[in-house]
Design brief:
The structure holds two protein chains of two kinds. By secondary structure, chain A is mainly beta. Chain A has no helices and eleven strands. In chain A, strands 2, 4, 5, 6, 9, 10 and 11 form a seven-stranded mixed sheet that branches. A four-stranded antiparallel sheet of chain A has the order 1-3-8-7, with no helix packed on it. By secondary structure, chain B is mainly beta. Helix content of chain B is 0%, strand content 52%. Chain B has no helices and eleven strands. The chains are: A mainly beta, B mainly beta. Chains A and B meet through strand 4, strand 5 and strand 10 of A and strand 4, strand 5, strand 9 and strand 10 of B.
Chain lengths: 115, 113
């Protein structure tokens, strides 16, 4: 079946521009996560949704970062007034469960380059 | 905060050899551990997981060992193949509480033909 998809795959933004990154999780998956991965580093948690509820946003680095999942399916990560330090790969992951031990299925990521 | 770390940034092995990738974790509350493989331009791909009530788990050509006494994980890959070349991450999680995975910085595995 279809996995997690993300769009766009690549995004170049000029410093100060706003960007929106989309994640289509696996159909029926309850949990959705966003991670940020800097070059040569492991992914770092940004935020977590259980259905449409954003239960954890402790990883968002500043108030320029905003995420939503209004209907409990597709999610959008928005970055306002992008800065060079925002350049990274943004990964989305989903899972069919919301408690207990479960695997997270990752999408291919969106590579954001801020110039 | 507490995090997962790795000892070796790069591991080079000959095709057919066994590979061992190590990981240290520091959060004693973590009770679920996962190894992911990430190829260039792709998202992390699940390899194998282990719960804290186990010390060993085997999959196809892979084995994960967990030593809770010294907070150490290892991933063993048998008969390493060129397709195994990638960056490997260990990640930790808790069945309750915070749902986010905490990743280490990764080990690059290079398989020489």
């Amino acid at each position: 079946g279809a996995g997690v998809s993300q769009s766009p795959r690549y995004k170049v933004a000029k410093r100060g521009q706003d960007v929106a990154l989309r994640c289509d999780p696996i159909s029926g998956h309850v949990s959705l996560f966003w991670y940020q991965q800097a070059l040569g580093q492991g992914p770092e948690f940004l935020t977590y949704f259980q259905n449409e509820a954003q239960l954890d946003k402790s990883g968002l680095p500043s108030d320029r970062f905003f995420a939503e999942r209004p209907e409990g399916s597709v999610s959008t990560l928005k970055i306002q007034r992008t800065q060079q330090e925002d350049s990274a790969v943004y990964l989305c992951a989903s899972s069919p469960l919301s408690s207990g031990y479960y695997e997270q299925y990752f999408g291919p990521g969106t590579r954001l380059t801020v110039t | 905060g507490e995090s997962v770390g790795l000892h070796l940034p790069t591991l080079s092995v000959q095709e057919g050899d066994n590979s061992i990738i190590n990981c240290a974790y520091s959060n004693s509350a973590s009770d679920y551990f996962i190894w992911y493989k990430q190829e260039s331009g792709k998202g992390p791909q699940f390899i194998i997981d282990i719960r804290s009530n186990m010390d060993k788990r085997q999959g196809q050509r892979v084995t994960v060992l967990l030593n809770k006494t010294v907070k150490h994980l290892s991933l063993q890959i048998a008969a390493t193949q060129p397709g195994d070349s990638a960056v490997y991450f260990c990640a930790e999680n808790m069945a309750t509480g915070r749902r986010a995975l905490t990743f280490g910085s990764g080990t690059r595995l290079q398989v020489q033909p």
